[in-house]
Design goal:
The complex is a heterodimer of chains A (584) and B (665).
Chain A lengths: L1 H8 L3 H33 L4 H50 L2 H7 L1 H43 L1 H48 L1 H6 L3 H53 L5 H43 L28 E8 L9 E8 L4 E6 L5 H7 L8 E6 L2 E2 L5 H6 L1 E4 L8 E2 H6 L7 H10 L3 H6 L7 E2 L8 H13 L5 E5 L7 H14 L4 E5 L3 H4 L4 E6 L2 E6 L1 H7 L1 H9 L8
Parallel strand pairs in A: 3-10, 3-11, 6-9, 9-10
Antiparallel strand pairs in A: 1-2, 1-4, 4-5, 7-8, 11-12
Helix pairs in contact in A: 2-3, 2-5, 2-9, 3-5, 5-6, 5-9, 6-8, 6-9, 8-9, 13-15, 18-19
Chain B lengths: L39 H11 L4 H40 L6 H10 L3 H8 L11 H50 L2 H6 L2 H43 L1 H48 L1 H6 L3 H27 L1 H25 L5 H42 L21 E8 L8 E8 L4 E5 L6 H8 L7 E6 L2 E2 L5 H5 L2 E4 L10 H5 L8 H10 L3 H6 L17 H15 L3 E5 L7 H15 L3 E5 L3 H5 L3 E6 L2 E6 L1 H7 L2 H7 L16
Helix pairs in contact in B: 1-12, 2-5, 2-7, 2-12, 3-4, 5-7, 7-8, 7-12, 8-10, 8-11, 11-12, 16-18
């Protein structure tokens, strides 16, 4: 965590100094007031010097005013610095995650990434804020208070040697026990909420499988557990405040007793007694604050570590130095590529998995051709298609784009050649127009309508009240599955990229729309390389080449009629569908 | 004094909840307007009733509280008396021993030291004597005892209250969970899941926090304020009034600042939501952002929201951060006034030094509970609002109770009949009317038809998820209402389109419907569902823990797991609800083969869209608008040339109208 703080707070060094200075003044001011009060008593009340009382009173008012101003300015700077810190960390994290490949995203998991960029930063930011206020003020007050107390009367200050450590130990030990318990309690609350969430989501299944009692028992266990822990936490906290008040009060008592003796012997003045009592209160409160604050550190430290993990992870897929060659180099391509993709003996396996997902994959995708990839669930189709835009790197073998290995090219350049329609059609919140423009920010409205037309989305978009300006909710939730798919396709089409990748993009469409779309697409894509992954054989009957995958291996390449003659897997697939009877 | 105290020791520092219920990105700080309960008194009374079982302990707690506060409040006064003894002692020491106090006073006045004389007049001094340590010792001892008792009672109070709170919450949670089990499915279908979830999680957590913090604190704070105020008035009415003035002043200042900061907090919430939403979208659509070259734009959008969020949160923190210094300022002014005025009064004999000291302590003791009361009231409001929502849930009507004399299905042959069955979800929307159907054991029935035709409804009624309005359904000749629901449901095996897999191992998920299956049986079921190989490609195999949304395996694979689960449960009647639509047709064929095995001698209902499934059924029920419009085998229906024939020819998969596709889940 120290690294994180040091790195991101360094640019604000000057503000930090100002804050410390102001807080120092604040501590001094707070401690000076009792001193002045002692003065009133010693030199005003006892001596009968009324003027002294008034004058000292005026000084006290001035100090109070100064105190107020200092603290407000300190709040200004600490709020600003802490929030700046938060902003900077968030920005760094976001930039970092943008550079991640799918490997890293899957390693951490998207929800975790989101939490780290939001919640965790929040935690650390709050700690910084507290640090710039309380955590500096408390030690300063404590030290200043001790100093003044000693200066006032050395003998009485000896009491501090007992009181302060006692206070620190009491709070410290309570906290040390409480914090892990508290964290455990949070975990248990999460657990119970999770059980409830699952129960609600699967209520039908639970009742259908007659598992209601089992679930109730599961809940009861979690409930018992939580109650037990919560009780222990609450009982521990029950002790804290009374114990602290006792120490504080006992200190006051001791001070009056011993102070009385000292005053009687003339070693101390009566006014000093009042001052001393107030110093003690301030010191002890400061110690209490300091210990409590430092207890919040571990939680923020955990968040800071999670943030550091992200910041220190280097993406596994990055442009290598050789890929940044200038365009004069021999190996670099000039201008838009032709769009030929070649797989040479490609193998892919997820790190740590027992079996590879793809093995010995070799084929070529030619420009102007439509290639289809078919196979059962888990045969590796989507993985294969994800390798083309280099969302993952191959474990063995190579993939070449226009004759050059993907890994030797700049990612940005590779992507310019491609348009992807992923399996799960994902739309962004905004409008229909903004979503289509995602594919090409410079597209004109006419071009957008063209794309929508080919994607068979024109009819429904025209019917929408605001047409292109119609709102799209997060994830496209306000549209049906078929509409989302068609918009995703339009988004890819408007890009006019040489390579078009369609991963099971027709699944939510009925046969009629599917057919119309494919013919419109065929007309559009005469010079394009098109790759279609499909479940429905009727979608791919007219493909120039069909690649059949089974359990990660290619079991057939050819046209539909060739494969019907030679490939048993393909025959099975086709026969299971109904095109035998009806027209495609 | 700028000592910022935390609220009472029994506080429960919760993880801050965001406004996106269910533990979303937590936002910090005050500023969110508290929810207000609709019926404060009624809810308070009802919540109070839940405390009834604990009333004896609560009475003890109350007594402890009162005594504790009493002791805490008289402490400073007593300590002040001790200081007076010391002061009187040293003043006395300075005076010649042979005089009385009155003589000393007169002597001073005669010497032009009228000020000193005034000072003396307010005290009880024995000239010549020093500090009376016997008296001092007695007072000190008394104070020590008083403080000790105060702390002990306070601790005892908190300790007991902790138990009360936890027990009440335990019972409440349990009640809610049991209630969930008794609510009819209709409730879950008609209420947004997020809302129900929020009630049973967030709202309950909120009630817990409220109980823990308000119960003890409220009593203690109110009593402390009363006690301290009394003491202050007893010592000096004028100073007391000055101190009292700080209350409305502080209040006014706080309100003023809070209102200003509220605007900024609203802005902070807005931009936080915007920023988090942006982050979520960009991360969820990560591959799209990359491949479409959108990264720069994403970062630009992020920077804009980030900067705006920074600005509003900075302002919000700053403005609200002024409250504390402002409060401290007011308190300090108060302190100065007391010190000066008190000093003057001690000098002219109207007040004792010890009393001034006590007063200073009292004014500090005064402000803390007042701020606590303010925050407690807020918390109470919010807590009661939550309690209201939870009580609403507990008041919901439960499902029809089981019949008192149930029959038992043991030889489950799977003969199901529908006799003149009518049902509708809403009274004005007719669905199923006078449905009569006879399904013999071992038959497979395919149910087809457009969405909303009543297909899932049929299942809802078979499983008694919903009760029929008219007619009856029998299972092996017994009206299903004469059976217990558990008995009835154990005879069915369901595979739904909406897969439900919980956070456990794959093994546990498959074994869910069966009673103590062996490893071999589990693997057998998995193999039959063609998911065995897939599981083995995962790093942990059968021990892989599925995430709460089972996000680490694909939808198709999830469905295969649920199919394996149904295999293992080995039911008498199978219900497949569009189960195989997310699985490619090739794998589906293999599953169908295995299922045909399973279906031998078992009745099965298949709601499917794949005509391949339908083609092999014994009977096809074609439904539209809740009515069965055609029945027969595939060949018969094709020959009839009606509704089914048209359906078949268009090879529809989801629906007729291309723009009315079934929304993807």
């Amino acid at each position: 965590m120290i690294q994180l703080l040091r790195r991101f707070l360094r640019p604000y060094g000057r503000a930090l100094i100002v804050i410390v200075l102001l807080l120092f003044l604040q501590a001094v001011g707070n401690l000076y007031l009792p001193t002045l009060n002692a003065d009133i008593i010693n030199n005003g009340v006892v001596t009968g010097n009324i003027r002294n009382i008034i004058v000292t009173g005026a000084i006290m008012l001035a100090v109070t005013l100064l105190l107020g101003i200092c603290s407000i300015i300190a709040v200004y700077f600490s709020a600003r610095t802490a929030m700046q810190f938060g902003r900077d960390v968030r920005a760094s994290m976001f930039t970092k995650v943008q550079s991640f490949s799918l490997h890293e995203v899957n390693e951490f998991g998207t929800p975790s990434l989101i939490t780290r960029n939001t919640n965790d930063v929040q935690q650390v930011q709050m700690l910084v804020l507290m640090g710039l206020t309380m955590m500096v003020l408390a030690p300063l007050t404590a030290i200043g208070g001790i100093f003044l107390a000693v200066r006032l009367n050395l003998q009485l200050s000896a009491l501090l040697l007992i009181i302060i450590p006692l206070m620190a130990i009491v709070i410290g030990s309570l906290m040390v026990k409480a914090v892990p318990l508290f964290r455990s309690m949070q975990v248990k609350i999460d657990r119970i909420n999770e059980v409830l969430r699952e129960n609600l989501a699967g209520i039908r299944v639970i009742r259908a499988f007659v598992r209601t009692q089992h679930e109730e028992a599961r809940f009861e266990v979690a409930n018992d557990d939580l109650t037990d822990t919560s009780l222990r936490v609450a009982r521990l906290f029950a002790l804290m405040l009374p114990a602290l008040m006792l120490i504080m009060n006992a200190s006051s008592v001791a001070i009056v007793w011993f102070g009385g003796h000292l005053i009687n012997n003339g070693d101390m003045q009566i006014g000093d007694l009042t001052a001393f009592l107030q110093y003690i209160v301030q010191i002890l409160f400061a110690v209490m604050m300091a210990v409590m604050m430092f207890v919040m550190v571990p939680r923020a430290a955990a968040s800071a570590e999670r943030i550091q993990q992200i910041l220190e992870t280097n993406p596994s897929i990055a442009d290598t130095a050789s890929a940044d060659l200038d365009t004069d180099s021999e190996t670099a391509r000039t201008g838009p590529g032709t769009g030929r993709i070649e797989f040479r003996d490609v193998e892919f396996r997820y790190p740590g998995a027992q079996d590879p997902v793809l093995e010995r994959i070799s084929f070529t995708l030619e420009p102007g051709q439509t290639t289809a990839i078919v196979g059962g669930t888990g045969s590796g189709k989507t993985t294969l298609v994800n390798l083309i835009p280099r969302l993952y790197d191959v474990s063995d073998g190579s993939i070449l784009l226009d004759g050059i290995d993907l890994r030797d090219q700049r990612q940005a350049q590779v992507w310019q050649e491609m348009a992807l329609v992923p399996q799960k059609s994902f739309l962004f919140s905004g409008t229909v127009r903004s979503n289509i423009l995602f594919g090409d920010a410079d597209a004109s409205d006419e071009q957008i309508w063209d794309a929508l037309r080919v994607a068979q989305a024109e009819p429904f978009v025209t019917k929408l009240a605001d047409q292109l300006d119609s709102t799209v909710d997060q994830g496209g939730a306000n549209l049906s599955g078929g509409q989302r798919q068609r918009l995703s396709i339009a988004r890819a089409l408007v890009r006019r990229a040489p390579i078009l990748i369609l991963d099971d993009s027709f699944s939510a469409l009925d046969y009629a729309t599917d057919a119309r779309l494919r013919s419109a697409l065929a007309r559009e894509s005469r010079n394009r390389t098109v790759v279609i992954v499909a479940q429905r054989v009727s979608s791919i009957l007219d493909a120039d080449k069909i690649i059949v995958l089974d359990e990660g291996l290619i079991v057939g390449i050819g046209t539909h009629s060739e494969l019907m003659d030679t490939c048993p897997t393909y025959q099975e697939i086709v026969n299971s569908q109904l095109s035998a009877d009806g027209a495609a | 004094m700028s000592a910022a105290t935390t609220s009472s020791g029994a506080s429960n520092p919760r993880r801050p909840q965001g406004m996106f219920g269910g533990g979303g990105p937590g936002a910090v700080g005050m500023g969110l307007p508290p929810e207000k309960p609709r019926n404060f008194k009624a809810t308070l009374r009802r919540l109070g009733r839940r405390l009834r079982p604990e009333r004896w302990i609560i009475s003890v707690v109350l007594i402890l509280g009162i005594t504790s506060v009493f002791f805490a409040v008289i402490g400073p006064k007593l300590l002040g008396n001790a200081t007076n003894i010391i002061f009187e002692g040293i003043v006395g020491k300075q005076l010649p021993a042979n005089m009385t106090q009155a003589q000393a006073e007169a002597y001073l006045r005669a010497n032009g030291q009228s000020q000193q004389a005034d000072l003396l007049s307010g005290m009880t001094v024995t000239p010549g004597a020093g500090v009376d340590f016997t008296a001092l010792g007695q007072v000190i001892a008394l104070v020590a005892v008083v403080y000790l008792l105060s702390s002990i009672f306070s601790w005892a109070q908190n300790y007991l209250m902790a138990g009360v709170t936890q027990r009440v919450m335990f019972r409440l949670r349990e009640e809610v969970d049991v209630k969930l089990g008794r609510l009819p499915l209709k409730y879950f279908d008609t209420h947004a899941r997020g809302d129900v979830l929020s009630r049973v999680t967030n709202d309950i957590d909120n009630i817990s926090t409220t109980l823990q913090q308000t119960l003890t604190q409220m009593i203690t704070s109110v009593l402390t304020v009363i006690g301290v105020l009394t003491m202050m008035l007893l010592i000096s009415p004028l100073l007391a009034i000055i101190s009292l003035l700080t209350v409305p002043l502080s209040f006014a200042v706080t309100m003023f600042i809070a209102k200003r900061s509220q605007r900024e907090f609203v802005g902070q919430w807005k931009w936080t939501g915007r920023l988090n939403g942006h982050v979520e979208e960009m991360y969820s659509g990560h591959e799209l952002v990359k491949v479409f070259g959108h990264q720069e734009q994403a970062m630009a959008d992020f920077a804009e929201a980030n900067d705006k969020m920074y600005e509003s949160s900075f302002k919000a923190q700053f403005i609200s951060g002024i409250i504390q210094p402002a409060m401290a300022f007011i308190a300090n002014i108060n302190y100065v006034l007391i010190a000066v005025i008190g000093g003057l009064w001690v000098a002219n004999g109207t007040m004792s030094l010890g009393d001034v000291q006590a007063f200073i302590q009292y004014s500090r003791q005064f402000t803390m509970p007042i701020t606590q009361i303010a925050s407690i009231t807020n918390l109470l409001q919010s807590g009661l609002a939550s309690a209201e929502r939870v009580f609403e849930l507990l008041d919901e009507p439960e499902q029809v109770p089981e019949t008192a004399t149930p029959q038992i299905l043991d030889l489950r042959r799977g003969h199901i009949t529908f006799e003149d069955v009518s049902f509708r979800y809403e009274p004005d929307k007719p669905l199923i009317d006078d449905l009569t159907l006879d399904v013999r054991p071992g038959e497979s029935i395919a149910i087809v038809g457009p969405t909303g035709a009543g297909k899932t409804t049929l299942v809802n009624l078979l499983m008694r998820f919903y009760e029929i309005d008219g007619g009856r359904i029998t299972f092996d000749g017994i009206d299903i209402r004469d059976l217990t629901r558990d008995n009835l449901r154990r005879s069915f095996g369901m595979v739904l389109q909406d897969t439900w897999l919980f956070k456990g191992t794959i093994r546990e998920n498959i074994a869910y419907g069966a009673i103590d299956p062996s490893e071999a049986q589990i693997i057998q079921a998995a193999t039959a569902a063609h998911v065995d190989r897939l599981v083995r490609t995962l790093p942990d195999g059968y021990d892989t823990i599925l995430g709460t949304d089972a996000a680490n395996i694909s939808t198709g694979e999830q469905q295969l797991l649920t199919i394996a689960r149904a295999f293992l449960a080995d039911p008498a009647v199978l219900i497949l609800d569009e189960a195989t639509s997310s699985v490619d047709t090739r794998t589906e064929v293999l599953i169908q083969k295995a299922m045909a095995e399973l279906r031998k001698g078992r009745t099965s209902f298949v709601i499917a869209h794949r005509l391949s499934t339908i083609r092999d059924a014994d009977t096809i029920l074609v439904m539209d608008s809740g009515n069965i419009i055609e029945t027969g085998t595939h060949d018969e229906l094709i020959a009839a040339g009606g509704f089914y024939y048209n359906l078949y020819n268009s090879q529809f998969l989801a629906s007729f109208d291309e723009d009315a596709d079934i929304p993807v889940g």
